[in-house]
What does this fold into?
Amino acid sequence: MTRPYFPVQEGAPPPLRVTVERNVRFEEVDPLNIVWHGRYPSFFEDARVAFGDRFGLGYLDFYGQGILTPIKKMHIDYLRPLRFPEPFTVEGILHWSPAARLNFELVIRNAAGEVTTTGYTVQMMLDLKQEIMLIPPPFVQEFLQRWQDGGIS
It folds into this structure.
């Protein structure tokens, strides 16, 4: 990655991170024995779900508050292939945003620690009528305040 996907905002707390360990499954490779490019969004999803579990910002946490968080944008940069049955990690990095959105950077590394894939997703927040929220709901505002105050790391 030559430039960051999300620029650092002045006064923003450091990003929050989670790492998931996996192995490439046979069903995820193509006839060339490399992971098919269409599998990477699900690898990103593994990290976002683990992030939600760790920090209480999962899909069901949002849904329980009457909020939907669909993917608005996704970008993937493929740098090196992964092969069956190679172990790898997916790091999910949530970058600060005071808006009603979740900015995730994702980094996949092979067993040697080499970066194989990078990318990002942006999730927007909608109410149950599927109307776009312009400001985060109260439970997210509380989370952001704790993050900014250093109570979450």
